[in-house]
Each structure stands twice: as C-alpha cells, then as structure tokens.
Specification:
This protein is an alpha+beta fold. It is built from 5 helices and 6 strands. The chain has 2 domains: 30 residues; 174 residues, START domain (Alpha-D-Glucose-1,6-Bisphosphate, Chain A, domain 4), CATH 3.30.530. The chain has a 6-stranded antiparallel beta sheet, with helices on one face. α3 crosses α5. The mean pLDDT is 90.
C-alpha cells in the first residue's frame, strides 16, 4: 500500500513539474510578450552575452513613446520617482523609495555612466545606454544583471512597453532560488510596475 501511494505521489509530482516547466514557467518569464518579442534582440543584450536567464515582459500602453518616456527616465530611489510598484516591499528590502504620480522636471535627463545608489552598501543601478523615447538600459551593481526598457510604437498611438532582465548564474542553489522565489516574485513586482507606468502615461496621452 505504501509503495502504491509513493508511486502515485511520484507520478503527480512529475506531472506537476512538467506542467510548470512547459506551461507556467514560460508565462512567468515572458508575461505579455509575443514569441517575436521574446526572440528579438534589444540594446543591452550584449552586456551579458552568456546570460543564463532572461525575462521579457510586455505591456501595451495606449499612448505614444513621448508620453511614456518621462515616467521611465525619472525612476529610481528618493528623491527620484520610485518604480511604480509595491514601494512598501522595496522599503522592507532597505531601499528608500516612494512612488510619485507626477512628472519631476529635475529628473528628465539621464546620462550614460550615471549611478543611482539604492543603499549605503554600494548597491545600485548604473546607466548603460540612453536613447530618449526609445531605449533605456540599466545594470544592477554589484550583481551586474541588466534591465532594459524598450518603447516600440504601434498604430493608433499605442506603444509596446518592453521590460527585459538578463542575469548570469549557475549551480543548484542559484536555480532553486530563481525558480522557487525570484522568478515569480519578480513577475509580481514587474507586472505592477508596467501597469503603473501604463496608467500614468495614458493620463498624458492626447
């Protein structure tokens, strides 16, 4: 009886794992993205050419790029505009961040090489590429993972807002942490961010 129960449990676990890796995990990694968007190269991909993990998450915004860019370029810890996600979670992680619902004129210009410190431990975000109203490429330090935003105009004044993360890592602990915690957790935070940018940008749209 025990052997039969163990066999049944093993089968159920195997099926659950297969469903997760074939159906659920691709959705987690590429929420909202088409196959073309997942496979398309973006500025910043060359920073980590051998990245072991990539996410591409996409939101359609009913606004042109010029209405989205002001919200992107001012993102960051205080006194910048936040990340339009669950800022209380960010603060639990020790990041001094608070979201704003207004354009901050003093943070509408960003230059390559600029560093946005997240805490007093040397952790932060380095600006790697800036193409106004098109692309913004950031790199987390010291982890060195990359975070790129792309604005792809569509007809009818709409824009595909693409957020891509790439990082390197290996070993059982790395993959256990990614699959069990970081991948689903990042989707929750990033989905909220994309929705936050969408709602703000659409208030500026004609």
């Amino acid at each position: 009886m025990k052997a039969a129960s163990l066999f049944k449990a093993t089968i159920i676990m195997g099926v659950a794992c297969m469903v997760y890796f074939r159906i659920v995990r691709p959705w987690v990694l590429n929420w909202g993205a088409t196959k073309e968007e997942v496979g398309r190269s973006m500025p910043g991909d060359d920073i980590l050419p051998g990245a072991s993990l990539q996410t591409t998450r996409v939101m359609t915004v009913d606004a042109p790029p010029e209405c989205i860019w002001p919200w992107l370029v001012q993102m960051g810890p205080r006194p910048r505009a936040g990340a339009y996600t669950y800022d209380w979670i960010e603060r639990l992680l020790g990041i001094d961040i608070r979201n704003t619902d207004r354009i901050l004129p003093e943070y509408q210009h960003m230059e390559v090489g600029e560093f946005l410190a997240l805490n007093d431990k040397g952790q932060g975000i380095a600006v790697r590429d800036v193409q106004p109203e098109r692309f913004l490429v950031l790199q987390w330090m010291p982890a060195k993972s990359t975070w790129a935003f792309g604005l792809y105009p569509e007809g009818g004044g709409r824009t595909r807002l693409v957020s891509r993360n790439r990082l390197s890592g290996s070993g059982p602990l790395f993959w256990l942490g990614m699959i069990a915690l970081m991948e689903p957790g990042s989707l929750v935070m990033e989905r909220k961010m994309l929705l936050g940018i969408k709602s703000r940008a659409e208030t500026l749209a004609p």
